[in-house]
């Protein structure tokens, strides 16, 4: 009891006139409302069952928008609904979230109620459009380990979502601007209307037993009316009468009641619902005359576990390098770099070597060969492992002299006398691996908050020999530095790419995007691997876990990676006009990113920075 | 990076033979499964859509039991399924929980899948029964602010529950043993079967448009067959033929397809499903030959805010003391004590005084008058407030000399020189309030962990004058002491009553059971009052928030209060046989309760203590 006020009523009493005892009309102290006599005001909802088609949805639920960097939890508190204003270049995706929370329950079982989310196309005054379903997509934000993360697609033309009592739900809205989109101001609306839950409108349709009863009556009636030789007019009259009676009995079934009442016109039309009772979220998007490059300026490569996919979907391992799809995928301009499929040749059989040689020979004749690299060993720790890299490298370079090899590391080799200190040994790694590595890929964890150490790393590289410095994150660095673990802030996820741009690396590697536990069924529950921080190595999920769709389900973290890479394109544009120093100054002065432990905690600075690039770089 | 191992692959490498590089078959370091190659084994589920009626539910979901004191969160990890063994006296309620978590998803949209929970009656070998729906009830555990708390009734004969991907759900099972139940061992089973979601089997019933088509065809057919004067036999034949054609067209509707196929026998029978594919949870209950008293030994009183109910349900305030229902409720043997409805008479109009006098005169002639008390002022703080209590008391005692007055307090009056120290001033309160208070009700917060202070409080009381010592909890004491806030351990909730029994108070008061924020609609969201710990003052919820039911929804905390009060009956029985010292020793030696900061954290000791009472006290 920090406050020294063990009872609410006593505390409440402070705000009351002292002569009125703090008991309600009836004995039982402290049950009066106390500080806040707020809550819902008297309304027209009445005391009976709530028909959501007859009441404005704003009386039934809270609707408000949240930025893409917000983790909208089930306990997120409502905010006022405001007009959403976004900025996007061509070939950019910009996202935001709609948060929904029931004020009352209007469903009759289990849930608070269902809402329908309907989105219009976004139109410019010139008549150009961003079309719903293509350029505008909606996804439900589904929690993983209680943290909002999985983005499960929903039909943007007609999406019904169930809200639970006392829980905030979120919808992820993405605007994907095509490369050829005309710049301009695009406007649209999203209608959110409380509706009867599907399970309830089911009450209007026939139950199984009613259906079977109908079936029997119909068969019976057919027997009565079936063409045959009639013995008499009387028989025919009797049959007609009998059929008529049976038919009237069928029509009296409760299920046909509303057909009689509303003459089949159905409930109020969708249009009317949207105009009369829906909450309307107005949405404006400024598309500007900058086009993000088709190929990202920063090659960011992400590991995909083939084993995980093969096991879960019962697939066989291995595709030849000359498979037609291989050429299509490697040539895709959106792919900036790829690791050559590579089976370890340590066993050094001639067959293995020949196979690798053939693979290289096929690939090196292709234009996409310049994107390729070999990733031979993850984080070598000792000279024995370094020797393996050198030996494979010699083999590979005999197949193609311009082969690129990437090596990840966070320390120098143990067992060598490379340098007197740990950091110096780490910095001197290029001396050991040259010419057997071209992409020196170091862990951000090594730097910690010491951005100044970057210059020591870069000083050891030979750009004239094609050497590059890339970085990576995985288990480390941990909070508060940028990384992609579940439970970190949204800006912390996005900041990984701000960090890369500020530090000046020319590429980035992430170890895994689908590295959850083994399972043999497509829809098996996703279990994160033990020993890893939650979400580490998992950036998307199998669609089958969430619906009958086979489309993979992205995480909010994957979307924030994309946003971070798009931020790099904005910063690169700005720097191309005003110089890198000015670009760095923009990042700092807007408060977006000052260092690994000093960056925007909320979304505001991001929009300020992007707006400034727009203002200073357009036409 | 505490471990100095920034990358999972590097860590995994420790467990591998050193000469095999830690890359998967394909480049991209560290994506192999690492430490655990566990997960689901290959199974017969195959790669396509899952039909839950054809696969054993144990392949589709985890089912395990949890004690009533467990807070089963959405992240609760599965445990092995074990036989549930419970012990209960007659007139006792004993509860446990069934936790459910999907292993795979078998629904096609939004949820992982639906399960049906079916419970048999519990039967003894002598043929006695505990009947499902009456003595056996099922409730869904619904989170409030993310903490499992609300217990929403479900139909025990046929309950369908939706499971979400990656989330554990819980069902609260209560066994209510009637007073007249024969002692013995009762056995039953609970069948948990994965089923098609209701929304999916809906496909089998008629859509609205099909239904309207049927309606029109039926009307058409009635027009054709309706009795009239027919001009000729030909007309009748034509009409019969036309009717027959129309009827055949109706029968051809897709909705009647399965009626033809399975001849109306429907899907596999429930019995078969239960026997073939359901997970079976075996349940044994030992009913022993002890009957809990109808009237609880410890009068525990709980405030109910009438204002909250009146506002939410649009009710008018006030019921006369001579209302027939008043007598029924006050006379209910399950009610141990009640506060007399009391409008403050400070304004002291004659009308108010006369009304109060009439109320007392009506009540004091009833047998239930002995249960009554007046609660005049909540936590008086100064002599002015003490004077008000005395003055009202004088008025009341002029109406009925045996009136009982309860006063809550956590300190002595300020502005008096009662005693040199704060605690002594608190202890001396009876000297100030005698004879204007009979029930001295003190906050447990005052004691803190100093149980020894109890004797100082009790020493000041005059049992010969009918004076009693009761206690209460509200905002305080806070964690780790026992209280009923959301987010505390289940044993912490139950320990409030263990504490009462150990300290020896003869009654208990809780300030509020429905003191959430104001709302004017029955199904309005429950908002806890600002400034209070979550759950404080709220022990049940309006049913309308969770379903169309008007039945109030209990919290897990309310159930644990009941369990604690039942524990008191066990301890009282034991003490009546072996003495209070032995009862206290039992509480300690089983590890159930040693003090306000030392009590069972898990359920085990509770069953040990109850089992010991059963073993030593039966027959």
Automatic annotation (TrEMBL), chains A, B:
InterPro entries: GH123_cat. Residues 1-26 are annotated as: Disordered. Residues 361-573 form the Glycoside hydrolase 123 catalytic domain. It comes from the Eukaryota. Residues 1-20 have a biased composition (Polar residues). This is Glycoside hydrolase 123 catalytic domain-containing protein. It comes from Oryza rufipogon (Brownbeard rice).
